[in-house]
Amino acid sequence: MRTIDLTYVGSGIHEELIAHVADQEGYFEDEGVHVALRDGAVWKTERVRAGATIGLGRALLSRLTDGIQWTVLTANTHRPLFWFLGGREVKSMDELRGRRLAVHGARTAPGCFARIVLRKHGLDPDRDLQCVERIPGDYQMDLRRLREGSIDAAYVGSTLAPEQVAREEGFSVLSWVGDHLRIPTVGIAVDPARIPLDDPALQALVRANKRALRTIAEQPDVAVKYIAEMLGRLTGEEAQQHHARYVRPYFTADGWVDLEAARQGVAAVAAELGIPAGTVDQMYLPAV
User: Fold this and answer.
1) How many CB atoms lie within 10 A of CB 276?
2) CB-based contact 231:161 (threshold 8 Å)
């Protein structure tokens, strides 16, 4: 059986749902490939390049800043699953002014997305609020710090369902990144200098990934089941609501990249980083 490493950065349905479906439904096995799902959250880019990666945002940043020719073969969604979650005293994005926000680093993909959305809300992330940097995680420490008041808001990912947490804790969902920024964020990407695009294990991984996307699109009950398993605090009804709001309308059925959305998203990222966007169409072309 062929083997391939597949890295993710942040746990949660954003990065792991499709791989989880492909694994649990036996699609990797059907394709004759063993996929080792690896947590690469703190890995250096050089180590990530040795395998395929789910994190298209990180691949994009290293392509723009380091010239690594990452190539996207399939995309799961163009809507980043990150949210701004306000503590008990913060009810709107405008109320973040002068407050403490736990957030990813500015030169990471999620952190860059956060800064873009802050600016869309009229907030300068360097002047209008205090950004408390931390690495990606399951965000449980953020919830603890929100409860005790050592931070006022947190930028969280899909290891939790923000509406459910907000109801339980008396917090507020301030904004969803996917409402303000469209860019391919998760899927399958490789550095062709390390793994050829026609590598049999890679092609098997891509086929299984696309099959899992079709399953999610065509069998919503299956999607809801796996969402409920991965977000263990949700009731069945809450899992259905989360799926209806964030997954069903926005996860692709075929893995295709919307090139116009990609161009606009890349331009926003490059502007935030203060570097030329150049042309990255070839990064996404194989996906279509």
Assistant:
1) 10
2) yes
> Is-contact 75 259, C-beta < 8 A?
no
Structural domain tally of the chain?
Answer: 2
Matching residue, tokens 């295709």: 256
* Nearest in space to 186 (alpha carbons), one of 53, 285, 64: 53
What is the reported pLDDT for 288?
38
CA-based nearest residue to 245, from 259, 254, 256, 234: 234
Q: Are residues 189 and 233 in the same domain?
A: yes
User: What's the pTM?
Assistant: 0.95
- Residue 68: which residues within 8 A CB-CB, separation 6 or more? 45, 49, 59, 62, 191, 193
- Domain residues for the domain of 45 are 2-79+182-287
Q: Please tell me whether residues 115 and 156 are part of one structural domain.
A: yes
pLDDT, mean of residues 35-53: 91
For 131: left if phi > 0, alpha if psi spans -120 to 50, otherwise beta; the answer is beta
In this prediction, what percent of the chain has a pLDDT beyond 70?
98
* pLDDT, tens digit (0-9, with 9 covering 90-100), for 175-201: 999 999 999 999 999 999 999 999 999
Question: Token pair for residue 211?
Answer: 């099959």
- Distance, in Å, from the CA atom of 1 to the CA atom of 179, rounded to the nearest integer, reads 41
Do 130 and 193 meet the contact criterion of CB atoms below 8 Å apart?
A: no
Q: Which of 164, 179, 194 is the last residue of a domain?
A: 179
Judge whether 31 and 204 are in contact, CB under 8 Å: yes
Give residue 161's pLDDT.
96
The CATH number given to whatever domain includes residue 137 is: 3.40.190.10
Task: For residue 82, give both structure tokens.
Answer: 């990150």
